[in-house]
Amino acid sequence: MKFRKVLSIFMALILIMSLSACSGTAPMRNPSASTASVSGKDSKTAPVTLKYYTIGTPDSDLEKVNKALNELLEKKINVRIDYNKINWSDYGHILSNIINSGTNFDIAFATEGDQGDYSGNAVKGVWLALDPYLSTTGREMHAAIDPLLWEGVKINEKIYGVPTNKEVAVPEWWMYSKELIDRYDIDISKYSTLESLEPLFKLIKQNEPDYTVIELDQYSHNFFALESYEYVLNKDIPLMVKSTDKSLKIVNIFETETAKKTLSMLRKFYKSGYINEDAAVKLISGLEKDLKVFWREGGGGPYSTSSWSKDTGYEVVAHQVSPSIVTTESARGGIMVVNSRTKYPQECISFLNCLNTDPEVRNLINFGIEGEHYALTPQGQVEVKKDSGYTGVQYTQGNWFILKTLKGDPRNKWDVYKNFNSESIKSEALDFTPDVSGAAVSTRLSAVSKVTAKYYPGLMTGTVDPEKVLPMFINELKAAGIDELKNSLQQQIDEWKAKKSAVLKLN
């Protein structure tokens, strides 16, 4: 009897530990397997290995970091990770093949569109609904991550992924060469419309022949965000709403006066020689290092200038030109999802909970191994070693606010981010997820996307004359069925809005 009593107490302790975050073991699938042996020595179940796919360049030291990560995870939660990185351009295609073939995996990175199709795959039942776990195994990460991000990843009032806890909004910034800003004593805060930039561009064109005045590419810019427009679907379908418009009226953005004015200004810039001649055919490649450019645009949060300066190879300064609005797109910018067919849902949640609450684990997966891939300064900041064999992709892998700051970053960097988040505005369309299933809708989406791909690059870079080309673009969009899509989506967003209002009244 005495032995049974001791055994019962021991089993109760095991159960309590299993519910802890990163300090104990993951919840056991078979609690009876974790008992005291007759000799009194502890035994536990063998660690589960979870197969994890994410985006990024496969590192030469990925296996080494994976080993160090597993040593840490096994000790903390009795879980191991099979850590796989897939190249940027291949990720969406390969993950789609993995899903469609039924190949085993447990956790993956996803956003909207061609990088995991978060909402599309959620509706198809590919991702596990996480709601039942967020009050138990995942309760610590649920408390740690901004509520607006959790709201943004909801689909039909269910949560299918863990959002990266980072900036909640991704406003537009205009960045400039600091060298030229200092040389001409320019106050960049005075420039927040395309029209206002014209005399500035003229100055640089006349006096700095070694500089490209403006660098654009096929799709990297959303000048319509200056007036708070956001896409209902994505940039391939030019249907937008104003984030602050309670009516959520959907428009074909290219039929608006906003678009006409924007395209006219871009055309003027191109004809003046301010925009790079290859803009309409230039592929999206991020910021091109060491290319001397005066002005670029980009989306980001506080201190984005640090990463932009690193990417360009010279120092830049930047000014925010669009409001900080939390949209569905910004909330879904980086998500970790669980395969609905996983055999180990509790262990998956335990790992994700750990990644979002344990600084030791989060810093290892982001920076690699201390002493090999980075060193700590006397101030406790990370100094990445030259030619490091490992680079984490920060926006894809968990809570930023438990990361160490980089050398040169303000020590209060994450406090500034938290303040930025607290002052951001919530879009009226936050968490709206259109239903685009059905053969007729798919056909129209495909047709509209092809028309957009044909005209968008030329128009949005000023390469073609909008007075001649814009009417052709609009006519072909109509022939492809954009008005029918707009009507269908308007009905959906109206119903969604009414349902949300009803829920708010009940609460």
From TrEMBL:
Coiled-coil parts of chain: 479-506
Domain of life: Bacteria
Matching SUPFAM superfamilies: Periplasmic binding protein-like II
PROSITE patterns with a match to the protein in the record: PROKAR_LIPOPROTEIN
Residue span(s) of domain DUF3502: 429-498
Signal peptide: 1-23
Short name of any one Pfam family annotated for the protein: DUF3502
The keyword Lipid biosynthesis belongs to this UniProt entry's keyword annotation: no
UniProt xrefs under InterPro entries: DUF3502 (IPR022627)
Keywords attached to this entry: Coiled coil, Signal, Sugar transport, Transport
Annotated protein name in UniProt: ABC-type sugar transport system, periplasmic component
